[in-house]
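Appendix B: a complete holo record

For completeness, this appendix reproduces one full record from the ligand-bound portion of the collection. The bound molecule is copper (II) ion. The inputs are the chain sequence and the ligand SMILES; the output is the full three-dimensional arrangement of the complex, encoded as structure tokens. No fields have been trimmed.
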Amino acid sequence: MSVGATNPIETVTIPASVFAMGDASGDARRPDGEDPVHEVAVGAFSIDTTTVTNDAFAAFVAATGHRTEAEHRGSSPVFHLAVAADPGDVLGTAAGAPWWRDVRGTDWRHPAGPRSGLDGLGDHPVVHVSWNDAATYAAWVGRRLPTEAEWELAARGGLVGARYPWGDDLLDDHGAWRCNIWQGPFPEVNTGDDGWLTTAPVRSYQPNGYGLWQVVGNVWEWCGDHFDAGWYARSPRLDPTGPADGPGRVIRGGSYLCHDSYCHRYRCAARSMSPADSPSANLGFRTAGPAEDPAPPVDPGGSDSQPTGDNDDQAGAP
Ligand SMILES: [Ca+2]
Ligand SMILES: [Cu+2]
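The structure of the chain with copper (II) ion bound, as generated:
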């Protein structure tokens, strides 16, 4: 698709950097392949400071007529406590994850089901977008999805080996939540102590050291790469773009449904996957693109830490 619009989301340029990718805090979920920690060099790039909002996605749809995969399919998963639909529109329950309902008439405009809408949600992350939908949107604004390495570098905000984008402690000094996850016994009672039962506005809480908001919690974020749990053992050091194939695409950051009793994936190093055609109520994205202003390398000591080119060719774009 040709470029149709300028990116409506604020961006920040991350300078060329060398960083330690993977879990260094001992929290890794083994089957996800968060280790080994390995050094990765990433050329300068820009990345959205927030996930793409409903307002931004609405402008894309108004201009292009894009129909999402959820709309083509006629249903999408909604968390059981959030469903806004007549009983007859609840089509089933996901095997192995009984808190999900497949709800007819659910799509990005009806995020909780056909009885829901976008009133008051213009600055919330768009959800029920598949990887294919997200990549199509990104191309329309002249951008692409971030690589998994770019995402983790940006998420770390300049901290080395920290568990979260702000450091190692989940709560702030006053005991307040720093991200939108789940509080209470999952999946039956969400106390909403962090202020939000499902999505929060994209600028909730505080940005990280690079100016990115809510890289963990709120919604999972699509990355460009195919997923492979064994990838870190063989990924290249320079601008890795993921394996050639895999069972799905990488998703990062965890969501408003995460709780450390069963899913401590609201961490910088945590990774998971979803099939490219598979949207959900807690899965969105942000876009990446070429560096927007000259930025010096962060790590002048690394022998190949220089920018790897102008990054203009979107080589990482799927
Ligand atoms: Ca919450
Ligand atoms: Cu989770």
